[in-house]
Design goal:
By secondary structure, the protein is α+β, with helices and mostly antiparallel strands. The protein contains 15 helices and 23 strands.
């Protein structure tokens, strides 16, 4: 059991604080001409957002906004540990099938409605409803029942044990909404910030939630997330003082900031990766020899050095990366690049005269650079690539990324490996962008995600990695590092492996 005491407000402390603030406002609340001054905002540069319904968000910027408007039941810290958020304590039955959560009391939604256990039940029932076709319906299909036990206790019952269930409850989409919400995209959360103004083309302005249930948080009164359509402009804006924080930038731009005065830079290892996949349910990907040829024509280590400039780690065509120290395996040798063998496989697949492909990619991170390197590496094997670059908000909007025959997808870092298997690789998964379906893979994934025997799980993950390297439909050339750069006048910023989950509640100006 993990526990934490409920959070409460100390009346005496508030009275003293109120008196002191009153004095300060009278003394310092006006400028030289008698004008009132405003607290400076913490200004964050991100890509524009498209989705505002937490069940549909996908990009880092959408998740970042939601993470500060709403709260999770449980959260993940920067070291990938499960920590309390709206649930301050929980327990698990001996058979691993029943989880009981105690909810913080005195929490309110931004519209003034008190939070109750029924809101949590409604939120997760919505997310797991197969008729709604949300990405989380697969993730939560193992939930048998959810019940409220009074106003401040929620009980989850599973069909079978899930050693990663707490991590599942912290999924990016699992933000708690008010029950029976008719328009879930209207920013009515319990989170640390309240939306003050939203301009889809420009920015979203937020102010501190004066009734936030965690005493002393947030530490900054105003948060401004400014939208930039490309990745160079935010870095220039940081240098000129127009924004205070930039995350998720190409390696070359990050290196350019490392010696910039007045800026603190951060880089941390992650399990985030850029995935190259060919749809296996249509030609040419329906012929396994084609993806095998593309694998042989790819030099992963060269890509890591060219695109990521050595930051991160070389990929092995599996989402189980070196950060998962208990599960990562290098037992199966990574094949060396072999252009002649790739050409032979393409000829056997009926493409002796060459193969022309359109490669779709979002415009963020090093993905356009990755596309350019792949084009160069595949050309000698007889593969002609036409690169199509789209804004990230367009690429992921309306699930267009799931439809393209050949694409690059940026998958953010998750604290446990089973997530990737369940949502992107098992047969029929909501985000199975390669349309991969393999009976042996599904059997191994089920073992890994349900067994309570750690040795059995380690063995299943090792066999999964060997299978994907041999015949999987994806190429994962690297695991990228996460970058951040912040104005050094601000303290309290902690960069998380998944940038959108970085938390600004403790950020303040020195």
């Amino acid at each position: 059991m993990i526990s934490k005491k409920p959070f409460g407000r100390q009346i005496f402390k508030l009275i003293v604080t109120f008196v002191l603030l009153s004095v300060l406002i009278q003394a310092c609340g006006q400028g030289p001409q008698g004008e009132e001054t405003e607290d400076e905002a913490f200004r964050v540069a991100m890509q524009p957002i498209v989705q505002t319904d937490p069940a549909l968000i996908s990009s880092d910027s959408e998740i970042l906004v939601a993470n500060h408007v709403y709260d999770y039941l449980v959260d993940i810290d920067a070291q990938n540990n499960v920590v309390p958020r709206l649930a301050w304590e929980w327990s698990t039955s001996e058979d691993g099938r029943i989880y009981t959560f105690k909810i913080v009391e005195g929490v309110k939604f931004h519209d003034g409605t008190p939070l109750s256990a029924e809101d949590i039940v409604w939120t997760f029932n919505r997310l797991r409803d197969p008729q709604a076709e949300f990405p989380t319906s697969d993730l939560y299909k193992n939930i048998k029942n959810i019940e409220a036990n009074g106003e401040s206790e929620v009980v989850f019952e599973l069909y079978q044990p899930n050693p990663f269930f707490l991590y599942d409850l912290s999924d990016n989409h699992a933000l708690i909404l008010k029950s029976n919400t008719e328009d879930p995209g209207q920013f009515n959360g319990t989170g640390p910030f309240v939306v003050k103004e939203y301009s889809p083309e420009d920015r979203i302005e937020l102010e501190a939630n004066s009734e936030y249930w965690l005493d002393g948080q947030p530490e900054t009164n105003n948060l401004e997330i400014i939208f930039f359509p490309d990745e160079t402009a935010p870095v220039d804006a940081l240098k000129s003082g127009q924004v205070d924080l930039v995350m998720r930038m190409p390696t070359s731009l990050y290196k350019d900031l490392k010696d910039e005065p007045g800026i603190n830079t951060f880089d941390i290892p992650t399990n985030g990766f850029d995935l190259v996949r060919l749809r296996s349910d249509r030609e040419p990907g329906s012929n396994p020899k084609v993806i095998q040829a593309l694998k042989l024509a790819t030099d992963r280590e060269a890509i890591l050095n060219l695109v990521q400039q050595g930051y991160g780690a070389t990929g092995r065509d599996s989402p189980i990366g070196p950060m998962y120290t208990n599960y990562y395996s290098e037992e199966t040798p990574l094949p060396e690049r072999d252009v002649e063998a790739a050409k032979l496989l393409l000829a056997e697949a009926g493409y002796g005269d060459g193969l022309s492909l359109e490669l779709h990619t979002p415009d963020t991170g090093g993905r356009p650079d990755l596309a350019a390197v792949l084009k160069e590496q595949w050309q000698p094997a007889g593969v002609d690539v036409d690169i199509i670059v789209e804004p990230e908000s367009v690429y992921y909007g309306e699930d267009g990324w799931l439809e393209v025959p050949l694409g690059i997808t940026g998958w953010g870092s998750r604290p446990y490996p089973q997530f990737y298997l369940d949502v992107m690789l098992v047969c029929g998964a909501k985000w199975n962008e390669s349309h991969f379906c393999d009976e042996e893979f599904d059997r191994l994934a089920e073992i890994a995600g349900t067994t309570m025997d750690e040795e059995e799980r380690i063995d299943a993950y090792a066999r999964i990695q060997a299978l994907l390297l041999e015949r999987g439909p994806v190429i994962i050339p690297y695991f990228f590092a996460q970058f951040g750069a912040v104005n050094n006048e601000f303290t309290g910023f902690v960069l998380k492996p998944f940038a959108g989950r970085s938390d600004f509640r403790r950020v303040s100006k020195q």
